[in-house]
Amino acid sequence: MDPIYEGKAKKLYTTDDPEVLRMEYKDDATAFNAQKKAQFENKGKLNKAITLLMYQMLEEKGVPTHLVADLDEVNLLVKKVEILQVEVIVRNLAAGSFSKRMGVEVGAEFEIPIVEFSYKSDALGDPLINDDYAREMKLATPEECAFLKKQALVINEVMINFFLECGMKLVDFKIEFGKGSDGKIVLADEVSPDTCRLWDATTGEKMDKDRFREDLGGVMAGYEEVLARVSKALG
Ligand code: TMP
Ligand code: ASP
Known about the structure:
There is one protein chain. The chain is of the alpha+beta class. It folds into two domains: about 5-80, 2-Layer Sandwich (Phosphorylase Kinase, domain 1), CATH 3.30.200.20; about 80-220, 2-Layer Sandwich (D-amino Acid Aminotransferase, Chain A, domain 1), CATH 3.30.470.20. Helix content is about 30%, strand content about 30%. It is built from six helices and 14 strands. The strands form three sheets. Strands 8, 9, 10, 11, 12, 13 and 14 form a seven-stranded antiparallel β-sheet that branches. Strand 12 (about 170-180) and strand 13 form a beta hairpin. Bound molecules: thymidine-5'-phosphate and aspartic acid. The site of aspartic acid has 8 residues, from strand 4.
């Protein structure tokens, strides 16, 4: 069966239920808008397992997601939603494109988290946008933008505390939201070391996709350690 959508790290397939899709997590890794590419054995499996546990943890804290059920090693069943073309990034510490753009040392702490929007467009390299761009480009209404920001900050609070319990600092992350047929906006896509910067709380060691972006080696060892800690905290 052909996927109805294929992204850089996941594929989506229809199921017998028109309201439910199968989301397959791939072993492909890309960085810098796919200028850098690789495959890591087990990445799909690890990211599926981590996303499942994070979604379950967030749901318990009152954050709705598109999760329907766990299916198998690399597949989740998810509610069919229309993904908003606005990516929401939350930053607790300076890193990545923020440090580069602003000339701020990596690791500098923000007094209050920064929320950023970017336009989900591979062709344009996910450019930074604001509420006004989102409104005029019909990506999201002002009310939806306000909701995305509020919800992203709630998710940030829950995840900061949860990852701290796991001995990790949540530096920043990117999330996506989807709109269901009922008009409700829920967390969608994935929550994994591909989309979150996570540092060991004691040593500061990087445990996320920066290991790939920066050629640090031990990429899957980092993801495995994240999964082990998340599983233990929820176990
Ligand atoms: P950035 O510092 O490169 O803008 O990344 C911010 C956060 O968003 C970081 O945790 C990695 C994540 N991210 C994605 O999930 N997908 C992307 O395409 C990019 C650029 C970043
Ligand atoms: N996921 C993005 C890409 O493929 C960028 C990144 O995560 O660094 O290029």
